[in-house]
Amino acid sequence: MTDALSIHFQLLARFRIIIYFPDSKNSNISETTNLCIGGLELTQKEIEKSEEEWKKVLTPEQYHVLRQKGTERPFSGNLYYNKEKGVYTCAACGQELFSSKTKFESGSGWPSFYDVISSDRVRLKEDTSYFMNRIEVVCSRCGSHLGHVFEDGPAPTGKRYCINSISLNFKNEEEKGKKNKEGK
Ligand code: FE
Questions:
Q1: In the β-sheet with 134-139, what is the strand arrangement from edge to edge?
Q2: Looking at domain 54-176, which CATH architecture does it have?
Q3: Contact 136, 127 (CB under 8 A)
């Protein structure tokens, strides 16, 4: 590869390219492609739905938390006590967000993690509601509200991602492995 071509690819790799699909069926979906040096290409779809569309696919309780930044009652979520091995996904779009390996007992009443699977899976936003200064955590793929992140978590990150159980679904690792063995 010539030097000029190599530089061109390196420049491309530093920018995020967004391709829009203007057809009527998928007008609310854009595809984000992250080009990586070394020929590895990663793609991830970003989802944009109208609030009416979200209401159709979420339960009223999910809609309130995920789309209206609500908070479930502490100790009420079905994943708070979950200790199974697996992956926690966004309940709105299915993106994989947290691993059971980073889940810990915070005593807060909400599922808590000290890290995300990958930093690009969430976006962090300043939240000054209720006269508090907090950092909101939203899904990077669909923009849904997940919870907040605090700086009082355990090592190695010191972070505590305090996430509403209702904002998550859980994929059990053993069931996934079994399905793969069965060729499903
Ligand atoms: Fe999502």
A1: 103-104, 112-113, 160-163, 145-150, 134-139, 122-127
A2: Beta Complex (2.170)
A3: yes
Between CA 46 and CA 31 the distance in angstroms is 6
Confidence band (pLDDT; 50, 70, 90) for 180? Answer: low
The three-class DSSP label of residue 69 is: coil
**Residue 139 Cα to ligand 1 middle (Å):** 5
The count of other CB atoms within 10 Å of the CB of residue 89 is: 20
115-135 per-position pLDDT tens digit: 999 999 999 999 999 999 999
Query: How close is the Cα of 181 to the center of ligand 1, in Å?
Result: 28
Q: Specify whether 162 is catalytic.
A: yes
Q: Measure 66 CA to ligand 1 centroid, in angstroms.
A: 9
- For residue 91, how far is its CA from the centre of ligand 1 (angstroms)? 7
The residue ranges of every structural domain in the chain are 3-47, 54-176
The pTM assigned to this predicted structure is: 0.74
Helices first, then strands: H and E counts in the chain: 4, 12
- Active-site pick, 90, 139, 142, 162: 162
Residue found under tokens 């790799």: 13
